[in-house]
Design a protein that fits this description.
Elements (H helix, E strand, L loop, with lengths): L3 E4 L3 H6 L7 H15 L3 E6 L4 E3 L2 E5 L4 H19 L3 E5 L4 H11 L3 E5 L16 H12 L3 E4 L2 H9 L6 E4 L18 E6 L8 H10 L5 E4 L5 H11 L5 E5 L3 H7 L3 E6 L8 H7 L5 E3 L6 H5 L2 E3 L3 H10 L4 H17 L1 H12 L1
Parallel strand pairs: 1-2, 1-5, 2-4, 5-6, 6-7, 7-8, 9-10, 9-12, 10-11, 12-13, 13-14
Antiparallel strand pairs: 3-4
Helix pairs in contact: 3-4, 4-5
């Protein structure tokens, strides 16, 4: 009989059906789910719709309705753990549900793994973590979670500084499949690309300003509306910029294919975890120009250019495609498979649980 794993998230369903906002959590959980499937596991996840099977994944109904959600978060781990009897349960990102998942996993002797999704997940005064009682439930559950998978050295420091002494901690940068959507002989007609959901912490307005100041280069933006007012402001402003293509929301397959046209990915965020967009770029040997450097990897391995403010980014754009560009692409080729291949990381995860 095959071992069973539950990915405790509704985001895989949304990604596979191209419904809702597709973020980093959905992409990463989907890659891990596919790897478990390929290794003979029975894979379950959650859906806002009724029970269904989709591409080999069995989806369990979870009513994400405000008036019953808190009760469902308490009861459904108990119910589904009894029905499915999983060997492993996996969650990702800051969420009060971790309190209930860690409690019932201990009760039923299930191996529960929590993946962090951002540095802010481990800051009690962070930008994205819950407040009040929800914050207390989240950290209460996190401290009782035996297996924690983090993305970078900063998160490891944050965990240890908060007296997480009993947990087993594994550092796993986000994973990707390099063979996905790679096309040869495609014209590289986009010099600089920005990809992300439109949120204040991602500072998309910087990219608009960069396009204005660098009219000899072609810019493009892809992303959905997380903060609607910010999205609309950027969309309206983009119409005035002749060298900027504003695409709005695109499904994951289309974004991956679009990267074939790109020479450089730009990240303007003030905080991240380990951006999936970096992996999309590096899987195609595309360097990044970024204000955020996870664990110093961009600088250490020569995967792009790191800057600390807008002025430095603007200067770097003017000089980006010099002699160092080809050297960066070669460095990416050496780095990527060794650090982000999902099959290698799956083996590492299994050893971590032993």
């Amino acid at each position: 009989m095959s071992d069973k794993v539950i990915f405790w998230t509704p985001t895989i369903d949304g990604l596979r059906t191209n419904s809702g906002t597709i973020g980093g959590i959905a992409v990463q959980m989907n890659y891990w789910a596919e790897e478990f499937l390929q290794n003979g596991w029975k894979v379950y996840s959650l859906s806002k719709e009724k029970f269904k099977n989709y591409d080999g994944i069995r989806f369990l109904y979870f009513p994400y309705i405000r008036r019953v959600r808190f009760l469902a978060e308490i009861l459904l781990p108990f119910v589904y753990f009894i029905i499915v009897r999983p060997k492993i349960v996996i969650s990702r990102g800051a969420d009060r549900q971790i309190a209930f998942l860690s409690f019932f996993s201990t009760l039923f002797r299930i191996k529960y793994i929590h993946f962090t999704a951002s540095d802010d997940d481990l800051k009690q005064d962070g930008i994205t973590t819950y407040k009040g009682i929800d914050n207390k439930l989240y950290f209460w559950g996190l401290r009782r979670t035996k297996y924690i998978v983090i993305q970078n050295d900063i998160q490891e420091h944050l965990l240890k500084s908060k007296y997480f002494r009993e947990q087993k901690i594994l550092v796993v940068p986000n994973v990707w499949k390099r063979t996905d959507y790679t096309e040869q002989n495609v014209e590289k007609d986009i010099d600089f690309l920005w990809v992300g959901n439109f949120r204040d912490i991602k500072r998309p307005e910087w990219f608009l300003e960069l396009a204005k100041k660098n009219g000899s280069y072609q810019f493009a933006m892809i992303g959905g509306s997380y903060h609607e007012s910010l999205y609309q402001r950027c969309r309206e402003e983009s119409v005035k910029i002749t060298n900027l293509l504003f695409h709005g929301k695109m499904d994951l397959d289309s974004v991956n294919q679009y990267f074939n046209r790109v020479k450089c990915l730009v990240c303007t965020s003030c905080v991240e975890g380990f951006p999936n967009t970096f992996l999309q770029a590096w899987s195609k040997s595309i360097p990044v120009l970024t204000t955020f450097d996870p664990s110093g990897r961009v600088s250490k391995y020569g995967l792009g250019v790191c800057v600390s403010n807008f002025e430095e980014m603007n200067i770097s754009i003017k000089n980006f495609f010099g002699s160092a560009y080809e050297e960066m692409t070669r460095s990416i080729d050496k780095y990527f498979v060794k650090n982000h291949d999902v099959s290698l990381r799956f083996k590492e995860l299994m050893e971590f649980l032993c």
